[in-house]
Design goal:
The protein is mostly helical and about 130 residues long. The chain is built from 6 helices and 2 strands, in the order ααααββαα. Strands 1-2 form a two-stranded antiparallel sheet. Helix 2 crosses helix 5.
């Protein structure tokens, strides 16, 4: 698992120079949710608020994320992808798909099905910890 995590971080760095695996994950979460508060990110990923704050600040400096007032409560700031953030995320996602296809090209159909089943089972257990 350590080798898998290291490879994932290294691959993310090759996909886009300013987008770490953590940044990619946060951008994906914001896209999936249509935006959210930084405290929601911290709670979801069980990270300290200061850690999320540093990550979000870096994403803002890169022009990938912006803060907008919450329509339901103007005191609350909601994080959203910028147009540039959406484009970078799409570019990296496409590059990752190509890399996965290349890496798995020689696998048989049954091997791919088993691999997908095992990954699904592994990821389903994440919420049980």
């Amino acid at each position: 698992m350590t080798a898998f995590a290291r490879r994932a971080r290294a691959t993310a760095a090759r996909m886009h120079p300013e987008l770490s695996l953590v940044s990619y994950t946060l951008l994906g979460h914001l896209e999936d949710r249509g935006g959210c508060r930084a405290t929601d990110l911290a709670a979801y990923y069980t990270l300290d608020k200061s850690t999320i704050s540093r990550q979000v600040a870096a994403l803002e400096r890169a022009g990938l994320v912006e803060r907008r007032p919450d329509p339901a409560d103007q005191r609350v700031q909601v994080l959203h992808l910028t147009g540039r953030g959406t484009g970078v995320l799409a570019q990296v996602t496409d590059s990752r798909r190509v890399a996965f296809r290349e890496r798995l090209a020689g696998w048989s159909g049954p091997d791919l099905e088993r691999f997908a089943e095992y990954l699904s089972r592994y990821n389903a257990g994440v919420g049980e910890e």
